[in-house]
């Protein structure tokens, strides 16, 4: 079953790319964009693979997950998607008579240091993947390639939401709009993940890093670092540019007082410029008119709207996580009178409580429920 699914999925890209593209002029910019997208997908696939090989169940529960099954189910699907995306893009390159870039090596040690670091990094990576395809879209002239890229974009957006949830601090869908990032901007963020040279034929803007510890919230004064901000530049004359999804342009504040304003939520890209002119939402403009750019972007998240969905996955929010055995009938009726219950159990939200996670039927017809510490409304 699984195998035939993979074969079908791999056959599809050839069908998508084969006929129309061979008849077209070879668009070298489109090939560059496909190579770039392929390398990002190679990185994502290897990153999830490295994380899943490294962590054991207790690493996930130590990091606060109610159960390792929650992240592992999602990471397995996402890793498979990224592998298929890479095959898909490589078949597109083959149809253009181009070879993929397979020589890039990735530095995954720091990003997979522990589960918390990994999920936080994965959230950046998935948001970056969405921003990268959005930013590359205007550069792809061929509608067939554009549609193929869009079919990856919609799936990266699902991954993005999942990682917004799994990384534990954000909201699942924080904004009605995502931020497009031009290829040189994506490479500024991705550069620290490359182990050695990775020549994609696209220059990277200088990497910018946030040196603050802890969450970024309204009022946080960001401290920013880049090799491009050095003795040759007067910091007093620089500007910090913050851009969020749906904003027509960046919020500009002095570099030395880069305070996050109130009223923001979601992913935020930050640049440093030598000019107080705001940067436009339009990434084509930023890629082209970059003479005032000093460094960046870097990406962070302003998390001001905590969500129940996110909190549900965390053991600390469930109080004591308990496990009890109830019959299948009890589970479906929601009566929860079980063997020794102080909990009411159903398959939805209990009165004053949160959903339970069924872990399947046992041999004696009872199901094991990984539950939450909720009070029985019957007063038990
Ligand atoms: C210092 O910054 C300038 C311009 O931002 C850059 O051209 C130069 O390479 C930087 N020097 C070092 C040592 O990184
Ligand atoms: C869990 O429920 C029990 C019984 O109602 C209660 O004594 C205990 O304090 C609860 N624990 C938490 C962390 O809420
Ligand atoms: C409920 O029963 C299980 C299995 O018999 C036992 O391990 C657990 O301690 C009991 N819990 C309570 C709250 O009595």
UniProtKB/TrEMBL annotation:
Cleaved signal peptide residues: 1-18
Pfam families: Ferritin_2
UniProt feature coiled coil, ranges: none
Keyword annotations: Signal
Compositional bias of kind Low complexity: 332-349
Family matches, as InterPro entries: Ferritin-like_SF (IPR009078)
Keyword Transmembrane: no
Region (Disordered): 326-349
Membrane-spanning residues: none
Protein name as catalogued: Uncharacterized protein
